[in-house]
């Protein structure tokens, strides 16, 4: 698929049905466009066709309500610092028990060896190399906060926050990069040329002075900027953001 194109399950199925592929690795939420790929459908196709699934859940895990038992994914990985709200510096992989032998046989790196890490944790309850202790404690606190809020509640909060930005920015005349049914509700990419005379840098600096950070796009040919709602943010925060954005255009 081209950058920015939706991962059509039917096309994936057709390609995998050729029998020439052993694994499918894909991104659940593409954080540069805000596109949510159909994880349940893609993993189901993998299972049907005996293809191993590997899911990059970096910017969904902790907020998106996965049912891992039902999903039946082979590998899914994320990190401490996005929707779980911890500090950056730790990454983790969850894998299906049935993958242990394959992992053991295929470890090709001294340091990044998921099997050896798992094995060491079982035997010694320790990471293999010097652990980033502060990050581990911060991650533990973040996991506790996540569980105490509840994933379903966090997902509802994220969606509500996203909707405030989406409605507000469209009201201001901006155009989203993606059709609504592909939007993640976690991050929103808007077209730079969607609003007459819009100067991203100037808008950015105005907001930055007011403690609001917006991001440039990743791929220059898509000409977007991005806003995201990952974090301990609530509707009041989003309304404040929209007030400042609105005041920029009315001043
Ligand atoms: C952030 C992100 C990454 C990279 O994670 P780092 O913590 O920056 O190494 C990879 N994939 C996706 C989808 C992401 O959102």
Q: Which series of helices and strands comes N to C?
A: HEEEHEHEEHHHHEHEEH
Rg calculated over all Cα atoms: 20 Å
How many domain units? 2
**CATH third-tier fold name of the largest domain:** Aspartate Aminotransferase, domain 2
Describe this entry's structure for a reader.
This protein is α/β, with parallel strands linked by helices. It has 2 domains: 9-149, Aspartate Aminotransferase, domain 2 (3-Layer(aba) Sandwich); 151-250, Aspartate Aminotransferase, domain 1. It is 41% helix and 14% strand. The protein contains 9 helices and 9 strands. Strands 1-4-5-6 form a 4-stranded mixed beta sheet, with helices on one face. Helix 1 (9-17) packs parallel to helix 2 (39-48). The longest helix is centred in the middle third of the chain and has 21 residues, at 151-171. The chain starts with 8 loop residues before the first helix and ends with a helix.
Question: What's this model, at a glance?
Answer:
The chain is of the alpha/beta class and 251 residues long. It folds into two domains: 9-149, Aspartate Aminotransferase, domain 2 (3-Layer(aba) Sandwich), CATH 3.40.640; 151-250, Aspartate Aminotransferase, domain 1 (Alpha-Beta Complex), CATH 3.90.1150. The chain has nine helices and nine strands.
